[in-house]
Amino acid sequence: RKEVEQDPGPFNVPEGATVAFNCTYSNSASQSFFWYRQDCRKEPKLLMSVYSSGNEDGRFTAQLNRASQYISLLIRDSKLSDSATYLCVVNTPSGAGSYQLTFGKGTKLSVIP
Amino acid sequence: DTAVSQTPKYLVTQMGNDKSIKCEQNLGHDTMYWYKQDSKKFLKIMFSYNNKELIINETVPNRFSPKSPDKAHLNLHINSLELGDSAVYFCASSRSRDFQETQYFGPGTRLLVL
């Protein structure tokens, strides 16, 4: 089983649609969780952290279910500018007090006019 | 001002050559990283340094040697380049090695080995 699994998509949605991405992780010792966004030929950038109680940032809502080792991202009222690849990222202990980010392969979103 | 910068942005070279990629961050962060993103877009950690000390060294060939002259710089030297080394290499930094810290990525270096 891959450490972080995501549906690769692509998700092609019309403007204004609501779209949800799912992610599962295999290491139960994982401590923190993030969604990063990567535009074509650009570097990944943090979109939002994911907290156990769930959290919202404008049109974006992230949820975490530690028992099921499952993370989700919901985007409401999609904009053209939301078109990107969304990376599910999990921070896992790597020993000696260090942690490392493990990235999913990403889910590609295309928002269509 | 660029927070995490890498040079060069593009690197095209022949198999067998030795090349270096430089990374600098002006965020005052303690921890820096090198990642490799291959043709399948899979982003994977290679190395991490905290205050110039190597803390993560994933299973990469020993042809790859990171060097951190100070905590604002983390360079990557690659010996005897192979076709499979072609990828985008991202440098990143974070305030500390704490698990909650956000990592900030550089723009990437696109390496093509011919």
In brief:
The complex is a heterodimer of chains A (113) and B (114). Chain A has 113 residues and is mainly beta.
Gyration radius of chain B, to the nearest Å? 13 Å
Give the biggest beta sheet of chain B. Answer: 7 strands, mixed
Q: Nearest-angstrom radius of gyration of chain A?
A: 14 Å
Number of strands of chain A: 11
**What characterizes the major β-sheet of chain A?**
6 strands, mixed
> Element order, helices and strands of chain A?
EEEEEEEEEEE
Q: Which stretches of chain A are low in confidence, meaning pLDDT under 50 for 5 or more residues running? A: none
N- to C-terminal separation of chain A? Answer: 37 Å
pLDDT < 50 stretches of chain B: none
Overall mean confidence score, pLDDT of chain A: 92
Order of helices and strands of chain B: EEEEEEEEEEE
Average pLDDT of chain B, rounded to a whole number, is 92
Indicate the structural class of chain A. mainly beta
What is the count of helical runs of chain A? 0
What percent of residues of chain A are in strands? over 45%
**Tertiary shape of chain A:** globular
Tell how many strands the DSSP assignment of chain B holds: 11
Task: Tell me what you see in this structure.
The complex is a heterodimer of chains A (113) and B (114). Chain A has 113 residues and is mainly β. In chain A, 0% of the residues lie in helices and 59% in strands. In chain A, the strands form 2 sheets. In chain A, strands 2, 4, 5, 9, 10 and 11 form a 6-stranded mixed beta sheet that branches. In chain A, strands 1-3-8-7-6 form a 5-stranded antiparallel beta sheet, with no helix packed on it. The radius of gyration of chain A is 14 Å and the shape is globular. Chain A starts with a strand and ends with a strand. Chain B has 114 residues and is an all-beta fold. Helices cover 0% and strands 55% of the residues of chain B. Chain B is built from no helices and 11 strands. Chain B has strands spanning 4-7, 10-13, 19-25, 31-37, 43-50, 53-57, 64-70, 73-78, 87-94, 104-105, 109-113. In chain B, strands 2, 4, 5, 6, 9, 10 and 11 form a 7-stranded mixed beta sheet that branches. In chain B, strands 1-3-8-7 form a 4-stranded antiparallel beta sheet, with no helix packed on it. In chain B, a hairpin with a 5-residue loop joins strand 4 and strand 5 (43-50). At the A-B interface, strand 5, strand 9 and strand 10 of A face strand 5 and strand 10 of B.
